[in-house]
Design goal:
Length: 300
């Protein structure tokens, strides 16, 4: 439990923080003093406003086209000026250990939206310093891999990162895996996703692996889920298994049997039946590939 905000007079807040610390220690816990601080209400409001930032606006400037040496009428055009955004990027990359999540997230989203991928190698170098930005950085990497002319080397980096001590956080590695679209999976990444699907009990890892593999390796999905399903009781994992099996064109009876293992998946079963067993489109933010079978075929 974290991210609590308590307002009041400074002396009362200080006394309260001491009481909380004492109570925590009584049950064997310790308050993280590095993240616990007193601040004015103005500073608190500034933090809340910072959390609301989603992107950095890149202004447009008027560019005059044409030559003073010709009689042609000059043309005016609007061009973007990313100087401020690139300056923020430079500041982050120069000081990677002190980047607030709202700022880093907004910068990465804006870089991706404006196709500014020149510093991908530096972002890769510092990726282990940005676990709190993994969701934004994974999508930035995905944009870079899809952009013509950008050589990222991400497949080698990801394989090394996933097997290193830096890759022990399931949420972080699963977010970085989003860099690889289903229609552009390097063999080394396929190997990792197969391992996740066969062994992991983490919701994020299963979600990424089963969605990608159901597009490129449906046989593996069907055989692996069939082998695992009797050893899984988590309704979320069962739901993911069922949706992956739909995408992998498994028998309808097989999908229903997976969903019927937990009554909390009743609505999912009902939804699929009402949609004639067609999956909703995968959000572009997760993967831009849409499996044609979901648009044109009923599951068997």
């Amino acid at each position: 439990m974290d991210d609590l905000s308590i307002e009041g007079p400074e002396d009362e807040l200080y006394a309260l923080s001491q009481r909380i610390q004492a109570k925590a220690r009584h049950v064997g816990l310790e308050i993280n003093t590095a993240k616990t601080h007193l601040s004015t209400h103005t500073e608190g409001l500034d933090r809340f406003r910072l959390e609301a930032i989603r992107s950095i606006r890149v202004p447009e400037v008027i560019a005059l086209r044409g030559s003073e040496y010709t009689d042609d009428e000059p043309e005016f055009a609007f061009e973007t000026d990313p100087a401020d955004l690139l300056a923020l990027e430079r500041e982050i990359l120069d000081s990677p250990l002190s980047v607030p999540r709202p700022v880093g997230r907004a910068v990465l989203r804006s870089l991706r939206d404006n196709f500014l991928f020149e510093q991908v190698p530096e972002w890769i170098t510092h990726a282990h310093h940005f676990p709190h930005l993994a969701d934004a950085l994974g999508r930035y990497f995905a944009g870079a891999r899809a952009y013509p002319g950008i050589s990222t080397g991400l497949e080698t980096w990801f394989s090394n990162f996933e097997g290193s001590k830096w890759g022990h956080s399931d949420w972080v590695t699963s977010q970085y895996a989003l860099a690889f679209a289903a229609d552009d999976l390097p063999s080394s990444v396929v190997t990792i996703l197969r391992k996740w699907l066969a062994e992991s009990f983490n919701v994020q890892k299963i979600a990424v692996s089963i969605q990608r593999l159901s597009v490129v390796d449906a046989n593996y999905v069907r055989s692996t889920v069939s082998a695992r399903v009797d050893h899984v009781a988590d309704p979320q994992l069962l739901r993911l298994f069922a949706l992956g099996m739909v995408s992998a064109n498994a028998e309808r009876s097989t999908v229903e049997s997976i969903l019927n293992r937990d009554r909390r998946n009743h609505l999912t079963n009902k939804y699929l039946a009402e949609q004639r067993w067609k999956l909703p489109a995968t959000p572009i933010d997760f993967d831009h590939v849409q499996k044609e079978a979901n648009d044109s075929e009923d599951v068997g």
